[in-house]
Amino acid sequence: MPDLNDGESAEIKGSARLPYVLKNTGGVYSCTCPAWRNQSVPIERRTCKHLRAYRGEQAEQDRIGGELPVRSARAAGDASAPGLLLAHTWENDVDLTDWWMSEKLDGVRAYWDGKQFLSRLGNVYHAPDFFVAGLPGLPLDGELWMGRKAFQRCVSIVRRQDKSDLWKSVRYLVFDLPAASGPFEERLEQLRDCLASGHSQFAEIHQHDRCRGLDHLREELTRVEALGGEGLMLRQPGSRYEAGRSPTLLKVKTFHDAEARVVEHLPGSGRHKGRLGALDVVLPDGTRFSIGTGFSDAQRERPPAIGSIVTFRYQELSDRGVPRFPSFVR
User: Fold this and answer.
1) CA-to-CA distance for 288 and 211, rounded, in angstroms?
2) Which positions are annotated as active-site residues?
3) pTM for this entry
């Protein structure tokens, strides 16, 4: 993983218009994002998803001298809610080669606590005895699923309290073993053994495959969406299970290509000081926004001329019609 020497800074794309700036000042790491600024702990103990994504989970844990802070339903005061691992959206800023790739399921997230199914908020799903037979007496994290484009039907069944035979059309696809402390690969193996020994009729492990690179990611995304799927989930190799949103779990949805006209060169900072930081561009309908990722060093030294047309890639439009997570293509 990269790191910052004393006095160095780096930019990382976030949800804001301009990139966030990471900095190391005498061993105190900071970020310009609101999540870092608003923490009620000493500055040397603060971290955020951008520092964790840049330096790595273990490096940040070693730096602050303890478990990484996470926000979960339990931390917010709801003791009945399970502490689930939650995903961030991929912002085209992380190389996903060698990450574990799986289909993003359009089902109902369900935490098996060893005795019953719980929703993210701690509500009980009243599964019949035949459905839970063979499930282990330890926590599982997965999704109650009936197939693609069947979300509403699935919700209507699992929210019933009569434990009806309608559950026979539901499957529990399990993708993690929350109580296990090992890396993701070890947890997958333990999960396979756990489900195999229980002989559950309705539970199975969710399939994960290694991502071979961006082309493979796009091919798989196209295949899944053509079948009516929602997108992909990418899990960082060697990552641990933690409650709350983590940069080790990323969701990926459709890519779109579009064109825009360059109206301004925005200066860079940190590693990109003295060269291009982002392109300010405008769409044919007048929507103006910035593109700050996807550039090579050479392109930052010699950026597209003002007035030129550039192609960029994005995942979706915001409610205001602004492309989300835009990345320069050519």
Assistant:
1) 34
2) 104
3) 0.61
